[in-house]
Specification:
The chain is an all-alpha fold. The chain contains 3 helices and no strands. It is elongated and about 50 Å long.
């Protein structure tokens, strides 16, 4: 957030809002891509194991996306102090 504030000439509060907006857009893009993927997969005759592999990969991406903010909050690595 500090880097974003410096780079864009924003206050910390403005940078926080900008970061939140960017995250919301990224999540919306991911959700749209996931819908598109499911729609595309239904048009292809894939073996069941391939379906399961794709769905497992998407599920792991959900975990990764959800886990990063928790890591940032608890790791101490990204503290402002």
């Amino acid at each position: 957030m500090i880097v974003l504030a410096h780079e864009q000439g924003l206050t910390l509060e403005q940078a926080l809002h900008e970061a939140a907006s960017r995250i919301q857009r990224a999540v919306a893009d991911f959700q749209a891509a996931e819908r598109d993927l499911h729609a595309e997969l239904t048009t292809r005759p894939l073996p069941v194991r391939d379906w399961h592999a794709v769905l497992a990969m998407v599920d792991s991406m959900h975990d990764w996306i959800a886990g990063l903010p928790a890591y940032y909050r608890t790791s101490g690595r990204y503290c402002l102090a």
